[in-house]
Amino acid sequence: MTAPHDSRPSDWLWVAALSVFVTGAFVGFLLTSIPAMSTGTWRIWVGARIFWQLGGALWFGAAACSPFEAPRWKGLLPAALLGLALTFFPLLDMVRGPLIVDGVIVSASVRRDMLMGGDGVQTPTIAVDVDIDAPDGRHAWTLKGRQANLWVDRFEDLEDSTQPVRLTLLRHLDVLLDLGPRPRPSVGDPSNN
Q1: Staple partner for 89: which of 35, 172, 179, 189, CB 3.0–4.6 Å?
Q2: Residues near 105 by beta carbon (within 8 Å), at least 6 away in sequence
Q3: Which of 89-93, 147-151, 152-156 has the highest mean pLDDT?
Q4: CATH topology for 99-184?
Q5: SS3 category, 34
Q6: What's the mean pLDDT when you consider all of the chain?
């Protein structure tokens, strides 16, 4: 006769919490690097990344503790610190909001390279270096990968232009939300003086 299999729910919860935490730690950044975010949707994507990474860390910390141990914080504190470390830049962008720069694009250079892998396979890479002269000084950014692919045509169109533009981006995640002509101030606007 075989012994009955003991499958406690806490074992399955621990495995599920570990899975959510590990996937969030390794691929959670994709939530803010792959989608084409806009000024209206960026909070959804950044919030989802924070929820996945920080929530997964807290869930794993709670599941790693025995439910019968009194000091449950011993598992939650390191997990919370690790979750905060994973979500530091998304949290900064969520709190500070997007940076809006009105100015003229001085240069927008597109770099296309080939990255050589260890197995001899070459992978194309792309980056856009942007310099903007604004009333508060010169701003410089580098967009890489998917973010560069999303905006490269628009930057190439504006590279030699002297028209004023408005650039809206998440400064810590290096995500461009909007690039367009600078809106004209309306009559009676105090910034028009």
Answers
A1: 172
A2: 130, 131, 132, 155, 158, 159, 161, 165
A3: 89-93
A4: OB fold (Dihydrolipoamide Acetyltransferase, E2P) (2.40.50)
A5: coil
A6: 82
